[in-house]
Design a protein that fits this description.
The chain has five helices and 15 strands. The chain is α+β, with helices and mostly antiparallel strands.
């Protein structure tokens, strides 16, 4: 069959609960064949299927985002399968915890095993019908850009200042953060609709905020700096590093 992808199925009718926070709708849709195409990267695709929210990623990034899987499973079940000939796997998260991890028996076809495991655990299959994936319209998801706090407050693109490491071979690694880091600075004084009291509350909030190893620092002048614990390899993951910095800051600033 030649498939190589990861699929996360979250038992929910809210697609947003299943989508990793680095991604947002790109404005298009595709069918299952397009969602699983190896020409898809760096996008993901998502759809509601048979009582589950399903996210597909042909770059195998879902299993690396354990924080998202734990969060998505806090009040429900999350099943992730890696449909792959070389490294097939099946993970089950519940109540914010990884409760099981499985691989096929030696000699068993990895793709067939992963597809069968997905169907046994969720009822979702690769064919047609109410719980089938073949005829589903998938929403295309792209890496999030920009920073909107809510409908009335946003940080203009010009207020986002980036410092990315140079060539990864230049040795600019921070051992305290676990790898090459991306730094995002935001001047909150440029945010429309924020008065001095709101900016102070933002600084107090982000000063206490840490997520998945990311660190946010706010100074008295209103500048917020995000240090993202992300190993940056050019050019593929630089955009993801930026998106993660933005997502970390957005999460800290949300009410």
């Amino acid at each position: 069959m030649g498939w190589s992808m990861e699929m996360a199925a979250v038992r929910t009718t809210d697609l947003d609960e299943a989508v990793p926070h680095l991604f947002s709708p790109a404005g298009g849709t595709t069918r299952f064949e397009g969602a699983t195409s190896m020409s898809r990267p760096p996008e993901m695709c998502a759809a509601l299927v048979g009582g589950w929210a399903v996210v597909i990623d042909v770059e195998h990034r879902l299993s690396e985002n354990a924080g998202h899987l734990r969060k998505a499973s806090r009040a429900t079940d999350v099943h992730l399968v890696r449909v792959d000939e070389v490294e097939p796997a099946a993970l089950h998260y519940r109540a914010g915890t990884l409760v099981s991890e499985a691989v096929p028996e030696s000699g068993e076809d990895g793709e067939s095993w992963a597809m069968r495991t997905l169907r046994e655990r969720t009822g979702i299959h690769f064919g047609e019908g109410p719980s089938g994936l073949w005829d589903v319209n998938f929403q295309v998801l792209a890496v999030t850009t920009g920073l909107r706090i809510d409908e009335s407050t946003h940080i203009p693109e010009g207020a986002l200042r980036w410092e990315l490491p140079g060539d990864p071979s230049d040795g600019r690694a921070d051992p305290t953060l676990g790898g090459f880091t991306t730094e995002l600075s935001v001047d909150t004084t440029t945010c429309p609709g924020l008065d001095a009291g709101q900016r102070q509350r933002i600084r107090e909030r982000v000063a206490r905020h840490h997520r998945d190893g990311d660190v946010i620092v706010a100074n008295s002048e209103g500048t917020i700096t995000v240090l993202v614990d992300w190993i940056v390899t050019y050019p593929e993951s630089a955009d993801l590093a930026r998106a993660r910095a933005v997502a970390t800051l957005r999460e800290a600033l949300m009410p």
